[in-house]
Specification:
mainly alpha, 9 helices
């Protein structure tokens, strides 16, 4: 499957932002299923929207952090197009995921670009906190 995905990216004959029934794009899928080479190629092309939000409220950056994809997460941050403040349906952000997974360098970079801190999130008082 990875070979096919890489070939489609190289040929440019597919739409990387096509959305499936779960709201996944090729980049979200690659980050969710830990396909590092595919994710990095999609980021490199610049044709994938890193801020697309799936039905769980997650972005490719949240999935990359949740799955310990350090290089992918750092590339997404480097592009300047990945939203570090997205809060998914369960109250998680890329910063929370990076911290939970022990990804210190990613967490540091997220804070440098203005990611919500834990204090910021608690001030939002999402529904899940008040239950």
């Amino acid at each position: 499957m990875k070979k096919v995905a890489l070939e489609l990216i190289k040929t440019g004959k597919s739409n990387p932002d096509r959305i499936d029934s779960l709201g996944y794009t090729a980049l979200i899928y690659a980050c969710q299923y830990v396909m590092k080479k595919v994710a990095l190629e999609l980021i490199k092309t610049g044709k994938s929207n890193p801020d697309h939000i799936d039905i769980f409220g997650s972005t490719s950056l949240i999935w990359a952090c949740n799955n310990k994809m350090k290089k992918v997460a750092l590339e997404l941050i480097k592009t300047g197009h990945a939203n570090p403040e997205q809060v998914d349906n369960y109250g998680f952000t890329s910063l929370i995921c990076a911290c939970e997974k022990g990804m210190k360098e990613v967490a540091y970079e997220l804070v440098q670009i203005g990611a919500f801190t834990i204090n910021d999130l608690m001030s939002l008082k999402p529904e899940w906190v008040t239950k």
